[in-house]
Design a protein that fits this description.
- With 131 residues, the chain is an alpha/beta fold.
- The protein has a single domain (18-118), classed as Oxidized Rhodanese, domain 1.
- The protein is 37% helix and 15% strand.
- The protein has helices at 5-15, 21-26, 41-47, 61-65, 90-101, 112-118; strands at residues 17-19, 33-37, 54-55, 81-85, 105-109.
- A 5-stranded parallel beta sheet has the order 1-5-4-2-3.
- α3 (41-47) links the parallel β2 (33-37) and β3.
- The chain is globular, with a radius of gyration of 14 Å.
- The termini are far apart.
- 31% of the residues are buried.
């Protein structure tokens, strides 16, 4: 029988470390961390993003991470901890698990961008494309 998304989330949650909004708010200037927003571009345009975050659409993640891919982004070759986030934390938890399986040091932002905003943390307008 196929796995449901709840089972997939539970498995990912057991394997991937999550960080709280409070912890990330204190570390946004830490060069050893790269915040990765995996939301759809329309979400970014509508709601903004965490200042300094790197946008990597969820649908391109595997291609951008793999150094053998013609779509590889050098940002993913950095020696850093990558903290993935989406709106609620579900997509980013699965993305962080995938990134971890591909060899990255990956974390997920617990509660996602919604919790970030609810906590009154800063939000920036989406900037142009970045690598």
């Amino acid at each position: 029988m196929a796995k449901g998304f709840r089972q997939m989330l539970d498995e990912a949650d057991a394997l991937v470390a999550s960080v709280s909004v409070e912890e990330m708010a204190q570390r946004t200037d830490d060069p050893a961390l790269v915040m990765v927003d995996i939301r759809d571009p329309r979400e970014l345009e509508r709601e903004g993003m965490i200042p300094g975050a790197f946008h990597a659409p969820r649908g391109m993640l595997e291609f951008w991470i793999d150094p053998e891919s013609p779509y590889h982004k050098p940002r993913f070759a950095q020696d850093a901890v990558f903290v993935f986030y989406c709106a609620s934390g579900w997509r980013s938890l699965l993305a962080a698990r995938l990134a971890q399986e591909m060899g990255l040091k990956a974390r997920s932002l617990r509660g996602g961008f919604s919790e970030w905003k609810a906590a009154g943390q800063p939000v920036a307008a989406r900037e142009g494309k970045r690598d």
